[in-house]
Design goal:
single chain; 394 residues; alpha/beta; Aspartate Aminotransferase, domain 1; 3-stranded mixed beta sheet; 13 strands
Amino acid sequence: MTLRTDSEDAVYLDHAATTPPDPEVVAAMQSVLGPGGSFANPSSIHVAGRRSRALSEHARAAIARMLNVDPVCIVFTSGATESNNLAIIGAARQRAHSGRHLITMRTEHKAVIDTFAALEREGWPVTWLAPEPDGLLATGTLEAALREDTQLVSVMHVNNETGVVQDIAAIGGLCRSRGILFHCDAAQSAGKLPLDLAELPVDLLSLTAHKFHGPQGVGALYLADRPDVHIAPLMHGGGQERRLRPGTLAMHQVTGFGTAATLARERMHEDLTHYRRLNDRLWRGLSNLPGMHRNGNPATAFPGILNVSADDVEGESLLLALEPLCVASGSACNSQTGESSYVLRAMGRDDRLAQSAIRFSFGRATLIDDIDFAIDRYRRAIGHLRAIAPPAAA
């Protein structure tokens, strides 16, 4: 997808960070914001409020259909970061009387890692699991970590850096057999991969609209309709969203979210086919470069993400040399720290390979021409940086 900037055309291959809203999403949001739109507070009982309420429930139902659940299970939030915090802290506090042990992975998104770290500082014991070299969590590793006082396990579905897809059916099944809540951060998979939560043993699931061509600033938390799935609220001040997330809903964002969910259901197969074609073409164009490494097992990876590392290249210099190609080194939330990817280090990559990693990620409007531009730009950048690198010490 080519975007016009002030000075040049940028080729945008960073859709794992955020996606441009689909034109139908923009139109739906404008219909709410424009003259005669549904601006009223959906908590109000007057006719305008009831109209907004109906619109918000229509959006909730669209998201529920995408996940194959009852709409009552969907709680609106400001995005996956808030959903992760609400699920993890809320479950930990709600179940603290039964035990305080928590489990997660070292390759989770910062919104999960930092939340568990905060609980750990407050006295909750946390077990941090490492993945196999291909990025997957071995079920045996999880099983060995479970304790009598374990109350919550949190494992993401699709890794935001490598695209590795965890076996959440097996993970959730193990947790359910022990009476342990299973939370899944699905920010990178909801709206992109089939998620049938009527069948999957997932108790809490976080998602956000802007990862699948919806608006930024709105997301949801799914809570399974089961007697043992309860969480404590983090905020107070109103009865909205089952008293779990008080505050007036942003009607334009909620409407856009619902439209994006409807489009995702309709276009998912087509989108996945498109991503596979783009991913295969990009890797074919890069794989024959000397010293190239593909991060994550392609057999178990979401095709919308390709993460590669290169020998003898410094990561920050590579990012600059790739401009105006918009890609990421590591995750978008951690790309400005200058640190190498903690995800790849946890997978066993050495610091230099982790630091040279580049994440390409695709969207609905990504073109074959964009991929060919990326191949040419990357190959030129690698060649240039290796040519000017000082010789290795004898």
